[in-house]
Specification:
A: 114 residues, B: 114 residues, mainly beta, globular
Chain lengths: 114, 114
């Protein structure tokens, strides 16, 4: 089954404790992207990757890091989480990018930073 | 920079009634346009997309949308709403000049009355 898998789905952590949210897709997509969803703000793009070893900032990259060492994986790293990073995070993939086609979304990861 | 506006935060319709969700975009050229639906606790699913050609596009679940260049709009419609359509709906813009960037509206929550 074609899917985007995120882990963990739910996480409560404390300020400053590094964490990684993993994202994996099995559709051989070149493009992957991370978003955060906050009430009343829709989805805001954090980082995206057009292909392996190619990443770029979205609209709200501060406080986040990403890497794309393999085509299928695109982890989101919070080096020193803060309470304002409490949010619902979505990973998405597409064959060539939002400008060219449909995004496939994971089910989301709800992160709470105390 | 591109932007997407969904003027209605929340819409309530009766089951069987028609539906129109509004979306306006700001971009210097014709963007790629998308509508996604998010059911509670789920990721986003593509309803339909517009790249070029016929300005009336058909999607899944009986939805359609019309691109109006003169109004910079891409409104979503459905002739008869079902209770299962209750969800949050997002309009999104992709750029033909940068396939990596994507911008979403803030979303419209649809409630369906029996």
């Amino acid at each position: 089954e074609a899917q985007v898998t995120q882990n963990p789905r739910y996480l409560i952590t404390v300020t400053g404790k590094k964490l990684t949210v993993t994202c994996s897709q099995n559709m051989n997509h070149e493009y992957m992207s991370w978003y955060r969803q906050d009430p009343g703000l829709g989805l805001r793009q954090i980082y995206y990757s057009m292909n392996v070893e190619v990443t770029d900032k979205g609209d709200v990259p501060e406080g986040y890091k990403v890497s794309r060492k393999e085509k299928r994986n695109f982890p989101l790293i919070l080096e020193s989480p803060s309470p304002n990073q409490t949010s619902l995070y979505f990973c998405a993939s597409s064959l060539y990018g939002q400008g060219n086609g449909e995004l496939f979304f994971g089910e989301g990861s709800r992160l709470t930073v105390l | 920079a591109q932007s997407v506006t969904q003027p209605d935060i929340h819409i309530t319709v009766s089951e069987g009634a028609s539906l129109e969700l509004r979306c306006n975009y700001s971009y210097g050229a014709t963007p790629y346009l998308f509508w996604y639906v998010q059911s509670p606790g789920q990721g986003l699913q593509l309803l339909l997309k517009y790249f070029s050609g016929d300005t009336l596009v058909q999607g899944i679940k009986g939805f359609e949308a019309e691109f109006k260049r003169s109004q910079s709009s891409f409104n979503l419609r459905k002739p008869s709403v079902h209770w299962s359509d209750a969800a949050e709906y997002f309009c999104a813009v992709g750029l033909n000049t940068n396939a990596g960037k994507s911008t979403f509206g803030d979303g419209t929550t649809l409630t369906v009355k029996p």
